[in-house]
Amino acid sequence: MPSQLTASRSNALAGTVRAPGDKSMSHRSMILGGMASGVTEVEGLLEGDDVLATARAVQAFGAKVERIGEGRWRIEGAGGFKTPASVIDCGNAGTGVRLLMGAAAGYPLTATFDGDASLRRRPMKRVTGPLADMGARFDWRAAEDRLPVALTGGTLTAIDYVQTVASAQIKSAILLAGLNAQGVTSVTEPEKSRDHTERMLRAFGAEVGVEEMGQGWVVSLKGGQPLTGTFVAVPGDPSSAAFPLAAGLIVPGSAVTVEGVMLNPLRTGLFAAWRDMGADLTISNRREAGGEAVGDVTARHSALKGVVVPEDRAASMIDEYPILAATAAFAEGVTVMRGVGEMRVKESDRISLMVEGLRACGVQVEEEPEGFIVTGAPSVPGGATVHTAHDHRIAMSHLVLGLAADQPVSVDEPGMIATSFPGFVEMMNGLGGGIA
C-alpha cells in the first residue's frame, strides 16, 4: 500500500458488497479452537493482519492451524496450551493479546507476549491486574504496564471481578482464565458489553451463567469445564460495514447495501445513533449465522441532524465513534459524544486524533476529557492531510469523509487498514468512490 491515500469527492455511490468477517468473533474462534479438544472449522474468518497474528499465536501454543480456503480455517486443538518455543508476537492486535493472555494464564506454562510499536504503547494492566489476582505472574520486560511481558500461568483461583467501565476484552480474558481456575469466576458489568465470548463458549460446550443486573449483568462460569471443537460461521463485522454505509449516508445520491452484517444488539449502537440523526437505514433478509442475528443493511443519502448520543450506548459502539464523528461533520447542528474515555486507550488516543483530523478538514470540534462535540454542516471543506498514528479506524473514517468533502482528504500510514479491513480501498472504489 502507498505511504499515503487520498479520497476525493465522489459521485453517487451504488452497489451491494459483503462485510468482512467479524473481527471479535474471528479472534475468539481461533483462541477457543486452540484451547478445545478436537477439530474446529471456521467459515467467514476475517483474514486481516490482527487475526492472522492470533492464528500464529494459537499455533505456537500447540494447536494445528490450517487455512483450507478463502475465510475457511481448520484448528485441531490438544485440549490446552503448551509453553511456546518463542515470543508470541501479536502485531497490532490488542484484542488478540489480551484474550490470549487470559487463555494462557490457566495453563502451567511461561510465555512472553510482544507486539508492534503501537501495541507496545497500549496499557495491559487492565487485563493483567485481574489475572494476577487469580494467581498468574507477570514479569514486565521493559516498562510496567507495557509489552513485552512474560506470563507464568497455572494453579489459578476464581475471582468475582466488578468492572467500573464495561469492557468485553477484560471480561473475556477473565472468563477464559476462569475456565481453568478453581471455583466459579464471575464478572459484573455496569453496562452490557459485547457477549461473543459467552455465546461462543456455549458453542464449544461450556456452561455460562448470565444474570441481569440493572443496565448490566453478572457473567459467571465454573472452572474445570472442557471445550470441544465445533463449527463456527463468522458473520459480517458491523464495525467494518460502518464505513461503506457511512459513505452511503453522506455522499449525495448514494444507495449502498452491505450483506450479511451481524445484528447482535450489543454491536448495533451506531445504527441506532444514525437513525436518531435521521438516517435512511433499512435492514432486510434477517436470518441467523453462527448463533448471531444477521441481515442486509442499506444506507441511502440522508439529511442528517446533530444529536446527543446516550452515554450508555458507548459499550455497544466504542469502535464506531470515529466514523460516527465523520458522519456528524455533515449533520446540521451539534452532535455530542460523551462517556467515551475508553477511546483514548485504543490503538491510539482516538478522541484527540479525530478532533485533530476533523479540525484540519474545517470542522468545528470541541474536545473534552471523556468525549467530544462536533458541530456539523452539509458542506465540509476537507483539503487536509490527516495524521493517523497508525490507527486503521482513524484512517478509514477520514477517507470516508473525503468522499463527500469539498476538497480531497489524505491520510498518512494507511498500511494499517489491513489489520481489520483488507480490501477496503477496492471495496469503496467498487462502489464508485475515489480513493487512490
Explain the overall architecture.
- The structure is a single chain.
- The protein has 436 residues and is α/β, with parallel strands linked by helices.
- It is built from 13 helices and 26 strands.
- It has helices at 23-35, 49-60, 94-105, 117-120, 125-134, 168-178, 196-203, 238-250, 269-276, 321-328, 350-360, 392-402, 424-430, and strands at 4-8, 14-18, 37-43, 64-69, 72-78, 88-89, 110-114, 137-140, 149-152, 156-157, 160-162, 181-182, 184-189, 208-213, 216-222, 231-233, 255-262, 280-289, 292-300, 308-309, 333-338, 364-368, 371-376, 385-386, 409-412, 434-435.
- The strands form seven sheets. Strands 24-25-1-26 form a four-stranded mixed β-sheet.
- A hairpin with a 2-residue loop joins strand 14 and strand 15.
- Helix 1 (23-35) packs parallel to helix 7 (196-203) and helix 3 packs parallel to helix 6.
- The N and C termini lie close together (10 Å).
- The model has no long low-confidence stretch (mean pLDDT 96).
Topology of this structure?
Blueprint: E1 4-8, E2 14-18, H1 23-35, E3 37-43, H2 49-60, E4 64-69, E5 72-78, E6 88-89, H3 94-105, E7 110-114, H4 117-120, H5 125-134, E8 137-140, E9 149-152, E10 156-157, E11 160-162, H6 168-178, E12 181-182, E13 184-189, H7 196-203, E14 208-213, E15 216-222, E16 231-233, H8 238-250, E17 255-262, H9 269-276, E18 280-289, E19 292-300, E20 308-309, H10 321-328, E21 333-338, H11 350-360, E22 364-368, E23 371-376, E24 385-386, H12 392-402, E25 409-412, H13 424-430, E26 434-435
Parallel strand pairs: 2-17, 3-16, 6-7, 10-12, 11-13, 20-21, 24-25
Antiparallel strand pairs: 1-25, 1-26, 3-5, 4-5, 7-9, 8-9, 13-15, 14-15, 17-19, 18-19, 21-23, 22-23
